[in-house]
Amino acid sequence: MIQLNYKEARPLYEQIKESIRKMVISNAFLADEKLPSVREMASQLAVNPNAIERAYQELEQDGYVYRRKDEGFESFCAPTYSILTFSIYSFCSCSLQSQALNLLLLLKYV
Question: What percent of the chain has pLDDT over 90?
Answer without folding.
Answer: 39
